[in-house]
Backbone:
């Protein structure tokens, strides 16, 4: 049996940390000097998921990174086409990027009604734990979007919850 492969897109406003989250997950590194990529960049990482039967299932994740858009309107539908999953990212220090989450969700689910999404409130290392808890509390989307798996407070800088969001998303994409 060949390995299954799945497409994941990173979605979100400019500079929220999409590229940094991918780098942290794929290369396990973070650089404050990291320069923005141009166009679309594809990264690949293979993961082993444990199914309910305890069997390990290898999955190749193809992770798409976009750049150049400043708002959700700039995201081309062709970028999202064929994605079984998305990580939709906001920056906890920029409220407008949080307000745009629903626009990104609407666009993703319009193109991929059967896709799965994890919401990442990124740069959580920059604010207090109390603030993080408050943001997590008010930014839950499952009621309106049943295919949203959950909202996580991530940090590409410290690595907090970065592996978790990719593995959670992959598990839902494969086993649900
Ligand atoms: P993008 O791909 O969504 O456009 P980038 O965003 O990954 O390029 O990140 C934008 C800036 O935010 C970068 O800083 C990056 O280092 C920083 N950043 C990303 N994630 C985090 C995080 O979790 N915590 C902190 N503290 N910073 C983060 P520069 O200065 O290069 O623009
Ligand atoms: Mg980028």
Residues:
């Amino acid at each position: 049996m060949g390995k299954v492969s799945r497409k994941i897109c990173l979605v979100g406003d400019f500079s929220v940390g999409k590229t940094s989250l991918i780098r942290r997950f794929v290369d396990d590194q973070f650089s404050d000097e990291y320069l923005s990529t141009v166009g679309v960049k594809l990264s690949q990482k293979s993961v082993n998921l444990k199914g309910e039967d305890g069997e390990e299932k290898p999955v190749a994740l193809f992770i798409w990174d976009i750049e150049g858009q400043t708002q959700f309107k700039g995201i081309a539908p062709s970028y999202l086409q064929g994605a079984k999953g998305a990580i939709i990212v906001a920056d906890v220090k920029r409220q407008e990027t949080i307000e745009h989450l629903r626009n990104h969700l609407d666009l993703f689910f319009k193109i991929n009604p059967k896709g799965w999404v994890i919401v990442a409130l990124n740069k959580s290392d920059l604010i207090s734990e109390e603030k993080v808890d408050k943001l997590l509390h008010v930014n839950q989307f499952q009621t309106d979007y049943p295919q949203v798996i959950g909202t996580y407070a991530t940090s590409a800088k410290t690595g907090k919850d970065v592996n978790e969001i990719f593995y959670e998303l992959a598990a839902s994409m494969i086993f649900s």
In short: Residues 12, 14-20, 32, 34, 36, 122-123, 125-126, 155-157 surround G3D (ligand 1) (CB under 6 Å). The chain has one domain: 4-175. The beta strands are 4-12, 40-50, 56-66, 85-91, 116-122, 148-153. The longest helix spans residues 162-175.
